Structure formats: structure tokens, C-alpha cells
Amino acid sequence: MYIESSPYFENCSFTDNTAYQGGAAFISSETSEPQFINCSFNGNSATDTGGAIATLNAAEILIDRCVFDENSATSGGGALAIFYYNQTQKWATISNSLFINNSNTNAPGAAIAASSSNVHIIIEHTTITNNYSSSSNPAVEVSNAHFFNSIIWDNSTANDGWPISGADIQITNSLIENGGMVPGFNYANSLDIDPLFTDPANDDYTLSLASHAIGAGVGSYSHPRNGSTVNIEGLDLADSARVQPANSNPDLGAYERAEAETPYPDSPTNLSAEELHREVRLSWDSVDATDVAYYIIYQAIEPDS
Prior knowledge:
Elements: E1 2-3, E2 8-10, E3 13-15, E4 18-19, E5 25-27, E6 35-37, E7 40-42, E8 45-46, E9 53-56, E10 60-64, E11 67-69, E12 72-73, E13 80-83, E14 90-95, E15 98-100, E16 103-104, E17 112-114, E18 119-124, E19 127-129, E20 132-133, E21 140-148, E22 151-153, E23 156-157, E24 164-172, E25 175-176, E26 185-188, E27 197-199, E28 204-207, E29 220-222, E30 229-231, E31 269-276, E32 279-285
Parallel strand pairs: 1-5, 2-6, 3-7, 4-8, 5-9, 6-10, 7-11, 8-12, 9-13, 10-14, 11-15, 12-16, 13-17, 14-18, 15-19, 16-20, 17-21, 18-21, 19-22, 20-23, 21-24, 22-25, 24-26
Antiparallel strand pairs: 27-28, 29-30, 31-32
């Protein structure tokens, strides 16, 4: 699909399409402002960039409550590629969306590539997980990017590359695997712990009750474009109210739970084991929660048994 206008797509499915750029949609006009609301992109592919969507100098693009699953590209952006080569700053917004099982081979961005100097991208309440690059390039390659209340977890590369890379990246109240180790971006009030999805083996990326991503979001933020206040509201990917219960902090990722926070205590961190003669010495950093009195150690043959 070749777009040079500003169409509005809602409740649409784009499946098994193939193109050179933008397997399902290629957007090229500087006046285009397409919107994709509650759409699914499954099994699309591109022999170059943007397995599902590729934009080239489009004015603006809005993606809200969309699922990108099993899309692929040979070059950048297994699911989504956004490139602006003109001199005017352009903005893209992705919210309440899920990127899973996408892949690419020869360039950055198994899920998303948006690294042109004039592209600015906001990624809000979006889950990016289980995407794969057959090179050492990251799942997400972005520049001038602002992440809010999002999750990037369990993506993989052939050579253990970074989960995210780019320039001028601001991350606020999000959960990024190994995020603190990645150089070159600000990492404010964010987590690097397992989000404990409900059933990722079966593509259920809702948060389990034990997840500390529940209630870890920020309820409003200053829009990086003009400084206006953006209040978190509306619907999540499952069409449930985004903030539950009312007046609480939102959850991280594409899905919202009904609870304000998890009832489970934080897990200890920096767990290590030292093998000694006929014994093992365990050490960890305890949490400062007042409702944790002590830890009990169990012996098991298999993990979680």
C-alpha cells in the first residue's frame, strides 16, 4: 500500500504482504499524516526496510493500540522503519502497542528503526519483546527518542548486542533490559528487572500479579515538542482503561492491570554463588521493604521446582 495522503485506519488487519520497503504500507509524502488505531500487522515482509511500515519524509505518523507480530525486513526495522531526510523536524508517536517476534538481518532495528537526524519519536506504554536480529544490531535503533512507561525485554541478537541504541535517547519510568549498561542515554526512574509477563511462551504479554511493572509508570509528562502537559489516559491494548484504579500510577507496557501495585515484595538483587569445598556461599543485596523480615533458602534440583 503506497500512501501520499493522511488516511485513518482503525480495526484493520494487514497480513502476509510483501514489498521492497514497507511490506504493508509505504508512506512517502511530506504532507502525509497517517494514523493506525487498533490495527494488527502480521507476517509482513520487506526486502529492504520496514517489514510492516516504512515512512520516508512523512509529516507525522501516529500508531496507537497496534500489534506488530512476525514481520521481517532484510535491512532496518523488522516491523517499523521511519526515515526523514529533509531539514524539517518530524514527529512520530507510538503508544499502547506491542512489538513481538519481529526480525531483521543486516541493519539495526529488529523491531523499530528510526535513527535519521530529523526524526523525533515518542514511545509510550509500548512493549517490545522477543524480537530477533541475526546480526549484532539491537532490537530498537532510534535517535531523538523519548520513552515513557514502556518495556523493552528479552530481545536477542546473534552476537549479544545491546537491546537499544542510538543518539539522544531519553527514558522515563520504563523497564529496559540491561538499560543501565547501555551508553548514551538518560535513564530516569526506570527498572531493569524481569517484567514477569503472564505467559510469554504463548504470546501473552500482560503483566502477572507479581510484576513490579504494575503501578511503576508516570501519570503525566511534559511533551518534548512544546512542553505541554500530557496526562496518561485513554485505553490500553486490550481496550481497558489505562489507569486502574483511578488516581493511581499507570502500569508499564501495553497492558494495564486493575491493581494499583503488586502485593509481592521486591526480589533481592545481585544474587551470586561462590563454590567452596563441599559448600556454596550465597550473597545478595536485600531490599529495604519494611514487610520483609528474613529470607529462607531452599535447595532444589531444577529451578522453580
